[in-house]
Amino acid sequence: MISKNTVLVLGAGASMDYGFPSGEELLQDIINILDGSLLSENKQAKQLAIASIAYKYYEMKKESKKYNVTALFNAVKAFKERFIRSNTASIDDFIDQIPKDREELKVIGKILIILSISRREKENRLLYKNEKLEQSHRYCKELEMTHQGGVISLVRGWYNHLWRKLYYGGDVIKNLKNLTIISFNYDRSLEQYLYLGLLGMSKPDEECKRILNDNLFVHHVYGKLGNLLWQDKENDGATHNYASFDMKLFDQHASLLRNDPQPGEIPNAYTSLNGYDKMRKILVEIASIVDEIRTYTESTEETESIGLVKQKLSQCEDLFFLGFGYHPENMKWFVPKEIAKNKNLICAGTTYKVGSIVVKDMLAKHMKNILSSQSYTTTKGHLVKPEFSDYNIQKYFQEVRDIN
């Protein structure tokens, strides 16, 4: 049951139970897409695929005269060289620092985010996983397998804990209304998990859509990979189903392009690829959600959704930071006047692999307006202080402080 106005702030660590990368792993994924073997062994083909998506993006915006495929292919190579040398703390940092006169590099960066996260969006990862069968496992003797065998195990990450609070804690609609999600992630895994949960309770599909669209509030600070098929189309945003793109796109480029492309070969390869209906559809789908990804600067532009976030923060009683890195740019979200006026607010959360000392320093520096304004006194007169712990999220809810 969720009886209080509760805000969950999700960082990259919040999705890791379900196969998504940490911020550092996302950097590694992008480097390995650009200069490694991820998606395809052919580096030139991958660079052309990314350039082709960027060209399709400009085509759809009717700005294709601004850049041709060859120029964008060279821009991908320039992005790679800058990115590898940057020693950046995050892909968001890197994209935000790109000069305004190199807009095409920002577009390429957003495409790489989409490719990196999308390949991890698979429904089965939300529900079960394959693991090696150890000799001590209860199945080993029964199935007469060696320890090299494999079994399927259920995934019971913290989404499952939240789901039980929502569904088994009384009125699911009332519980959803008391919950606000502020996500700094691009993936839609939590939304899809809750949708699958409702479907799993044999509720009609239309009812599941209605319950979530009417009562679940999720704000992705830096955008997301488009709207899910069941979601209301906010601001006519692009739609992308919860599944990875067909990565054969890169193999198709590899079949059209040699490792050492000659002058004039790149535009011809793009034209050839664009003739395949299936590949063209993938280009369009990826290109259509590029603008759904936002930089630091773009994320602070005042919108109706951001206004609602501030309102929710001003009214919340429990503010949980989960799998959050406490980056200074992200912490700026939590010091508006509306939050500082909230006398009932209790800050809590995880510091797993960040460190309690680092987090306390961040809180003192970036959240002093909030912390200094709190009385920490509950309705029963007990003193309550911010509770941050190095536990992972699931363990934190079990051992330190639960949602209630």
Q: How do the strands and helices of this protein lay out in sequence?
A:
Layout: E1 6-10, H1 23-35, H2 43-60, H3 69-86, H4 91-96, H5 103-118, H6 123-127, E2 128-132, H7 138-142, E3 150-154, H8 158-167, H9 172-177, E4 179-183, H10 189-200, H11 205-215, E5 217-220, H12 248-256, H13 265-274, H14 277-288, H15 296-299, H16 304-315, E6 318-322, H17 328-331, H18 337-340, E7 346-350, H19 356-366, H20 368-371, E8 387-389, H21 393-399
Describe the structure.
It is a single chain. Helix 1 (23-35) crosses helix 5, helix 2 (43-60) crosses helix 12 (248-256) and helix 2 (43-60) packs across helix 14 (277-288). The protein is an alpha/beta fold and 404 residues long. The chain has helices at residues 23-35, 43-60, 69-86, 91-96, 103-118, 123-127, 138-142, 158-167, 172-177, 189-200, 205-215, 248-256, 265-274, 277-288, 296-299, 304-315, 328-331, 337-340, 356-366, 368-371, 393-399; strands spanning 6-10, 128-132, 150-154, 179-183, 217-220, 318-322, 346-350, 387-389. Strands 5-4-1-6-7-8 form a 6-stranded parallel beta sheet. Strands 2-3 form a two-stranded antiparallel ribbon. It has 3 domains: 6-19 and 156-239 and 296-399, 3-Layer(aba) Sandwich (Rossmann fold); 23-122 and 243-291, no CATH class; 124-154, no CATH class. Residues 372-384 have low confidence and may be disordered.
